[in-house]
Amino acid sequence: MTDAEDDNHKVWNLAEKIGFCMLATQSGTDLKARPMAAYAERIENAFYFLTDVASHKDDEVSRHPNVCLAFADSKGQKYVSISGVAEVQNDREKIRDLWATPAKAWWDSPDDPSIRILKVTPSSAEYWDSPGTVISYIKMAAAAVTSSKPDMGENAKVQM
Known about the structure:
This protein is an alpha+beta fold. The chain has one domain: Pnp Oxidase, Chain A, CATH 2.30.110. The chain has 4 helices and 8 strands, in the order H-E-E-E-E-H-E-E-H-E-H-E. It has helices at 3-18, 56-63, 92-98, 133-146, and strands at residues 20-27, 30-37, 39-41, 46-52, 66-73, 78-89, 115-129, 154-159. Strands 1, 2, 3, 4, 5, 6, 7 and 8 form an 8-stranded antiparallel sheet that branches. A hairpin with a 4-residue loop joins strand 5 (66-73) and strand 6 (78-89). The longest helix is centred in the first third of the chain and has 16 residues, at 3-18. The protein starts with a helix and ends with a strand.
């Protein structure tokens, strides 16, 4: 596996493991972010989200399809930022495929006519994968004493 393939694999693994992200969209001249449950489909090169037809994010995506997905595991010191293009779909079969317990908080069943799919096709990403909070603090303290830069783990920019 090449370094680029390894980095791409790392992005997908981190995003899948973390599972939830902040979806950032453009609203007029402002950026808005909200937490969303992400369904990563590596083979399809896509992230899927269940959304409601009446939500503002659907209108924002229609006007400005470039979005950012920010995944964070702060305790594990693992972060992924994914840029991509979003589109709203009314794929009833895909909605049923993605239906899971968390969706029941918003809708009664996958047949609810207000459910939509928000599909994000990633174009690029960047990840930060550190060894964890305690080890990171130890490395920072050691670097401060020795006047060196700490090795805080892996970081890479990735074309998707």
